[in-house]
Amino acid sequence: MTGESGAAASILPMDWKTGSFLGRIATPEGPTPVLVIGGELIDMARVAPTVSALVEAGDFSGAGGTVLGRFDPDAVDLLSPVDLQCVKACGVTFAVSAIERVIEERARGDWTAASAIRERLESRVGGSIRAVVPGTPDAAELKAALIEDGLWSQYLEVAIGPDAEVFTKSPVLSTVGAGAEIGIRSDSTWNNPEPEVALLVNSHGTAVGATLGNDVNLRDFEGRSALLLGKAKDNNASCALGPLVRLFDDGFSIDDVRGAEVRLRIEGADGYVLDGISNMAEISRDPLDLVHQTLSEHHYPDGFLLLLGTLFAPVQDRDEPGRGFTHKVGDIVSIESDRLGRLVNRVVYSADAPAWSLGIGALFANLAARGLIGGAK
């Protein structure tokens, strides 16, 4: 992400001036859908009052919008780039994450037991899980062998079985954007970021673009019981997206998502630094297969945003040997990919993050008051 000066270069890809991007900004009037095309910021509120409406219309040319000038992220307040879309997520889509979920389960959320369990599981099943294609006869054979060895887990079922894990990450309108604070529960003692690529999908099931996401996770909660997934995943400010959705066009396609490299950097106020790199080429299920499984027999009239899962499960010790990683308040989390840009957020307790207050009712009241939908003029 070099070759471009200024604020835009700090969060957008180096080729951002030739790409097309979709997002939302905060204005004095209220949240506003925008396009960034050829480096220009275009207000699309009078064309489509919401991002979901703009996506459903399918016209990303900027026609009818108001050009606000050159895009400068320092001059605008970037919000999460989605609004009325459901926010879905897939878990255990990488071999490493599968092993870490089994560790959480067997440790019952106790970080002190994780190191020994990790060593044993990695030596017994790590290579096998990496090599098998989910849902194939080879995967079924591996499952039988793992059951016989007493190593089977509900997490391995979704890792190598025919059905992916798909869950709802956040309520509509609850996600936060680039530069916002991200939240962990104050009663969690074992947690981590989950840097991911996410697809924006319209109501017809067509992926129209991609962005970066942080599916913040509480390892102690989910490890105690998979039935605590909701508490582990859905908390105030626990999902960050952005900076913008890069739209698929002649210069950026789903193949760029399939081959994306995702880089993670965590910088703590205590001087702790963690760096990591993952490659989407290592994902066990194709991104479009995950879209298909998310659609299933559902209908998403406003479309959905799908987090594709993460290869990262930070295990680098932070405070004491064997404890591994957990967040501290003040951590700066940076997630970066060459074609998607950089998403940066600061960690706070969820209770201390700005309260999610703009719900569906408040949004539509705001749009009506602005004359963007039927109602007050």
Q: Between the first and last Cα atoms, what is the distance in angstroms?
A: 44 Å
Assembly type of the chains comes to: single chain
Q: Count up the helices.
A: 11
Query: What is the second-level CATH architecture of the largest domain?
Result: Alpha-Beta Complex
Q: What is the H/E order?
A: HEEEHEEEHHHHEEEEEEHHEHEEHEEEH
Radius of gyration: 21 Å
Strand element count: 18
Unreliable stretches, pLDDT < 50, 5 or more residues?
1-5
Instruction: Please tell me the total number of domains.
Output: 3
CATH homologous superfamily label of the largest domain:
Fumarylacetoacetase-like, C-terminal domain
Q: Determine the mean pLDDT.
A: 89
Output the CATH class name of the largest domain.
Alpha Beta
Sheet with most strands: 11 strands, mixed
Name the structural class.
alpha+beta
Shape estimate: globular
Strand content: 25-35%
Structure description:
The protein folds into 3 domains: 20-79 and 362-370, no CATH class; 86-93 and 166-355, Fumarylacetoacetate hydrolase, domain 2 (Alpha-Beta Complex), CATH 3.90.850.10; 95-160, no CATH class. It has helices at 7-11, 51-57, 95-107, 114-131, 137-148, 154-160, 219-224, 229-233, 254-258, 287-295, 360-369, and strands at 20-26, 31-37, 40-43, 66-70, 77-78, 86-91, 165-170, 181-184, 191-192, 195-201, 207-215, 217-218, 239-247, 261-267, 273-279, 304-307, 332-337, 341-349. It is globular and about 65 Å long. The model is unreliable at 1-5 (pLDDT under 50). The longest helix has 18 residues, at 114-131. It is 26% helix and 27% strand. With 377 residues, the chain is an alpha+beta fold. A hairpin with a 5-residue loop joins strand 10 (195-201) and strand 11. The relative contact order is 0.18.
